[in-house]
Amino acid sequence: MILTGPEITTAAYDGRLRIAPFTADQVNPNSYNVRLGPTLVTYTDKVLDAHRPNPTREITIGPDGHVLQPDELYLGHTLEEVGSDTFVPLLFGRSSVGRLGLFVEITAPIGDIGFHGQWTLMLTPTRPLRVYAGMKIGQIMFFVSTGPIDLYRGKYQAASGPQPSAYWRDVTKLRAVAS
Q1: Which DSSP category does 26 fall into?
Q2: Among 177, 176, 164, which residue's Cα sits nearest to residue 50?
Q3: pLDDT at 172 exceeding the cut of 80
Q4: Superfamily of domain 5-178, CATH level 4
Q5: Can you give the residue ranges of every domain in the chain?
Q6: Which residues contact 8 (CB under 8 A, 6 or more apart)?
Q7: How much is the pTM?
Q8: In this structure, what is the dihedral angle of CA atoms 98, 103, 108, 109, given to the nearest 10 degrees?
Q9: Percent of residues, the chain, with pLDDT higher than 90
């Protein structure tokens, strides 16, 4: 089951959801709008390596916005910290942003129960597009879970700002176990 807008509001006020800052006018019929934070990160190497940290460059979105370029991956973040120890969150791009040719999530829309923090957005435009800090970029829906809950304790917990891939940490752990 998916939470309706009124239930999202109730859950935000009674603590079953944490949305900070919470603004009632960002509640939709069955989702909550999230806004783009002021920081973007891009990778600087032409070839990325899943087995090591990849160098990045940070961009601050100024008052005149920032133009995203095609064939470039931008890691952005939600302005809001969103999480729940009760519900399963899923993040999707807003249709109005998709109609501008911007992919907001590439392959990872599902959040884990117990994650609390700013969400990293994987932004890829189909053509040059100017974006602005604070613009409504995505929407998070919340689903009721069934069964015992094992809270998220992973490497991105309490994220603040865009988080580059930490996949290499998993590889390092696997190598240590194999040794």
Answers
A1: G
A2: 164
A3: no
A4: Deoxyuridine triphosphatase (dUTPase) (2.70.40.10)
A5: 5-178
A6: 17, 27, 30, 31, 32, 142
A7: 0.92
A8: -20
A9: 89
